[in-house]
Design goal:
The chain is an alpha+beta fold. The protein contains four helices and six strands. Strand 2 and strand 3 form a beta hairpin. Helix 2 packs across helix 4.
Length: 123
């Protein structure tokens, strides 16, 4: 994939199997936080809201969603693992044949925004 200039071109140039997941993640982020600033960082879609916020990327067999700083709460990681998702400290892997865990991602995004809003005045 050539270096994308924006999120829409990143999605359009991704493998066809990833596009529905990427579109849904894009919509989840923007509908949950319409004031989030979107762009391309490190060659992938990345969002900022009172600091680094979240992003996503496509890989050979999955899409990865992640938060920029901090960690996913252990209860969220455990619930996701129990439902067949692979998680990292800050990421969720969504295989091309899995549904996007919309409710959990919205919950994670809202928690991350609360942290960013609380710490914005401390910088």
């Amino acid at each position: 994939m050539s270096k994308p200039k924006d999120v829409d071109s990143y999605i359009a140039n991704s493998v066809i199997e990833a596009q529905p997941i990427l579109k849904e993640l894009h919509e989840i982020i923007l509908s949950t936080f319409p004031k989030a600033e979107e762009g391309i960082s490190w060659g992938v879609p990345f969002y900022k809201y009172h600091g680094d916020f979240a992003g996503f990327a496509t890989y050979k067999k999955h899409v990865s969603f992640g938060i920029a700083t901090g960690v996913l709460e252990s209860k969220d990681r455990e619930m996701l693992k129990n439902n067949g998702y692979v998680t990292g400290i800050k990421t969720i892997q969504i295989k091309f044949d899995q549904k996007v865990p919309t409710a959990v991602i919205k919950q994670i995004l809202k928690a991350k925004v609360r942290v960013n809003e609380a710490t914005k005045g401390m910088k």
